[in-house]
Specification:
The chain is built from twelve helices and no strands. It is mainly α and 283 residues long. The protein is globular and about 70 Å long. Helix 3 runs parallel beside helix 7 (147-172).
Length: 283
Amino acid sequence: MRADAPALLTESASSVWTTRLARLVPPVFTFAALAFLFIPIFVLIAYSFNASRSTVVWQGLTLDWYAAVLDDRRLRQAVMNSAFVALFAGAFSAAIGTLTALAIVRRQFPGKEMLSTALLAPIVLPEIVIAVALLVFMVALKAPLGFTSMIIGHVLVTLPFATLIMRTAAVALDPRLEEAAADLGANEWQTFLRVTLPALAPAILSAFLMAATLSFDNFVMSTFVTGVGSTTLPIYIYAQLKTGLTPQINALGTLLVIANMTVLIAVIGYQFRLRARRQRLSQ
């Protein structure tokens, strides 16, 4: 037996344990990251059933805070305002982002690179700078602040994200599909409506949902460009901090989580059905 056999065995055992630990590191960090993200949500849901007015002291179970959410007229109005602005901001961002992405990917025109860079400016610049600039512009035009200014501001903030999603989808789109449609006699408008737009539909939906989500919980831009009667949910919650938060906010958060999960499940189901349909057609 070799004299250095014990050292080789020790080195081999150390290597095995090092390999095992290396394999454990990614799952552990992943679990820790997920716990950091989701534990606060679970705590929020649990304390939405708290009978105490305190958000940190537990005194039993109750559903009164959910009833308070439904009975609070100003809270309902704030939620409706946020949903209204998010719907239009998401739709405009998805539409403009789709056309812009197709122009950048499929067309050659002067200033193309400048446009691509300018679209990323709202991501790089602090949002408060964009909000102040828009406010100064609206005041210079003597335009009233309200839903219109809010939607414009939210489009400025969400458009880069929608454009990036659509640009990725446009690059992945097979140009041979459009060429085949042109060979069959379709003009550019017919090709766009019957080929390009349906192929980009999943990406358009993703861009809309991303923009609408960012718009719904936007606070900085909304604070600067809001007007009378257009108070959104984040501004309303911030105003409630002056009088103290109650589990009513937890109940509202729980309802929003349920609504988001419902939309997410619906979108995932739509994606699966669309993929299954394409597989059946390809066969």
